[in-house]
Here is the input.
Amino acid sequence: MTKIGLEIHCQLTKLESKLFCSCKANYREFEANHNICPVCMGLPGSLPRLNQKAVESATSIALALTCDTPEKIAFFRKNYFYPDLPKNFQITQLNVYGDMSVGGEGYVSVEDKKIKIRRIQLEEDPGRIIYEGASERTKITLVDYNRAGTPLVEIVTDPDFESPRQVRVFLNILSDLLENLGVAEPGLEGAMRADGNVSIEGGNKVEIKNIGSFHDLEKALHFEITRQQSLFERDIEIAQETRHWDDRRKITVSSRSKEEDQDYRYFLENDIPWVTIDQSTRDRLKENMPESISSKKERYIQKFDIAPQVADIIASDRYYSKLFENAYSDHNAKDIANLITTDVIGFIDTKEKQQNSKITSRHLSDLVDAINSKTITRNSAKVALQEIMKSGKDTKEVLDEMDLGQVSDSSEIDTIISQIFEEEKQAVIDAKERPETVNFLVGKVMQKTKGKADPVKTLELIKSKLNQ
Amino acid sequence: MNLNTSILKYIEDVKSGTFTVEEFAAETLQRIKDVDSDVHAYLSLNDSALNDAKLIDQKISSGDKIGQCYGFPISIKDNICITGTKTTCASKILENFIAPYTATVINRLQDEDAVITGKTNLDEFAMGLTTEFSAFGPTKNPWNLDYVPGGSSGGSAASVAANECLASLGSDTGGSVRNPASFCSVVGLKPTYGLISRYGLISYANSIEQIGPMTKTVKDSAFLLNIIAGQDANDDTTINNDNVNYLENIEDGIEGKKIGIIKEMTTSEGLSSEVSIATKDAIGDFESLGASCEEVTLPTIPYTVAAYYTITSTEAGSNLARYDNIRYGYELESEGYEYNSYISKSRAKFGPEVTRRIILGGFVPSAGHAGKYFLKALKVKSKLISEINKAFEKFDYLISPTAPVQPFKFGEKIDDPVTLMLLDYNTVTANLTGKPAISVPYRVINGLPIGMQIMANSLNEKSLFQSAYALESKTNLPEVPL
Ligand SMILES: [Zn+2]
Here is the structure.
């Protein structure tokens, strides 16, 4: 059986400042080495000042993932030399001497399977190394410390995944959860990273590092499973090792450096006193936590009788659920939910489009009300939506400007039907013989009215005309 | 003008117009010029000291609000940062490091109108007990230039003893304030861990070290602590001291107090007969002041020096890892090196004692060895803490000589690291337990000083000063022959 475990790193980009100084947590807008200070540069004599909000955000994540949260947490130094590490040690957490990190054991349900979370740690992100130069020989290494000290949460799972597909579903659930909590923006480049470890039946565990995106992770896992299986089939031992994902060649490569043998000489970071997270703090965090995706979904289903797939789509996405939450009233909730999943999602399917769209909850409720009162047809609503997203104009204004008001006046529809009967003689004969072909004529009427005719009324009128 | 005066007397004299701030500063700078080529207490001088003094005189004459220091001259150990000035830690590796920020203690002193004379010598990165490990040459003991001043804050102690300033700030990781205070006959305080902000103090062993005042009198020590103690937003380990006034009731005496004489520190093999005799005299003095003295044993003490070096080396190995010459440091062409060879080349500038401790610090907490060394040292530390807390249930103070011996000649012990380490035997307990301890000048025998150490329970500095003041009033010491 294939076993896959994950080590996920997620930046707490929603925080104002870094983990131990007042430089910005959102370092992305700065020129290289312009978001730094003596603390995050580890200058001699500087001391870390713990960002208490980061502890709270990390604890919220632990609580949301149902992890145990110890009453007292501590920080440790992980000692190793690397150019992106200003102090040549990283301030992180450790559970070797007891539960001292923000989160202990928890789980995430993935399609009826519980994936166990082993621990959650709060730590600082290192800086970024940039390689420049044309060839291997002229290569120079630059370091940008803007990122150094950014609050980072490490989430480690047990090797509970059985397939790369399950990993993908889990990561989607997790990133939705982190975004929903309002602590992270997993969509930002480099804000959420994952390393994996893979073992197949009868083989050793192999760690895979240096994976750029979730998409690559899935590829790397697939590659690694295939590689291990082919070794196994040829009776070659699968070595326990760390392998790096080679993004260019799309394969995993054995690491030259023996990272697994590195001795980090962990010990307590005494510059940061133990932090107490008492019951009242945990209660407050829980209280202020946004409703979880699963409970949101449950509520949509129970209260509004929304179909489970529709509820799932809306609850999992902060943008859609916000649109929905602010639009619905008890009588039209289901219709608004359906409008979002059938039409809105089709137009706004990326984060970028979400940001650019001018649609508001008010638009949605107005449109649904218009449909329900038969002022417009569903088709017209779809046309109107597109315009609203672009212009953000009032619903009524758009309907008027585009002349989308429904034609429900019988005589007007009758006139159009007469024209169609003239133009489509064969179809009229067909419809008389085989009533199931009547929809062709309805479609013609809709075409002629640009979808504005009330389809129910149109059908009624055509039927009665056919019987004449 | 008498430069051998206390801060408090100086302030009185400035207030009464006996001399101006500038006059005293000029005289002090002249003294530095006259004697420091011999003593070598200073690594660098503050070029604007005289100007700073002038500005304070102007404030006084114009009736402006004046800080409580009235411009008294103070020197600063060169491991404490001041914006725009070199902070070298007496190391080649930081020879040209100019701090871009100022330590909290310095800000507090400058806010109260102290005048900084300059930065004083130390053993490289505060690792040593004689200043012989300074990369820029040793400091001499003003009592006898052939003798070591103690360390690592030897420059600070010597600058005060030689009247090259009225006070100094040192740092104390295992006795680095108290040991040179004892060797140079000045008052040296290692406060409760967390009482003084370490922001701007370049870390050696951050879990146990503190900045401490070095002064001519116990009252001056209390005066300085009033200014520099207290919580600091830049140091999460600082604790609230409720703004205690340490000078208040300092003359209350110690009548009826209980004093424990630490057996392990007063009967150890390494104790010299002079120090032993002085200790007996001190016990007599405490009793004549109305305190009751009784021997107390802390059985873990024989293990403390080993634990101390294990813990400090571990932390030093980590704290000094940042000196890789990549972000700051000294000129060293990187062409032709890859990362690992470059940093080992650049780190070769560390001196022998620092190198020794970094190597030790790479070993004792490493996988496979931590259980035998580092974790065991932490056990010694926690055992010692429970022993000393138990002792303080019974005693108000615990006493011992500060150092087991008097100052010795240069070169006498530098090649024998283990003997040198034993000099810490009486002082490391206060660091490992976080308790406050003070060294009070007590005797000068054969022209060389001896200091007595008093320890008190955490945050009991006020009571500690009362006992130190009482003991000080029993002494009558000669002036420094320089
Ligand atoms: Zn910073």
User: Anything to note?
Assistant: The longest strand of chain A covers residues 113-124. Chain A has a mean pLDDT of 89.
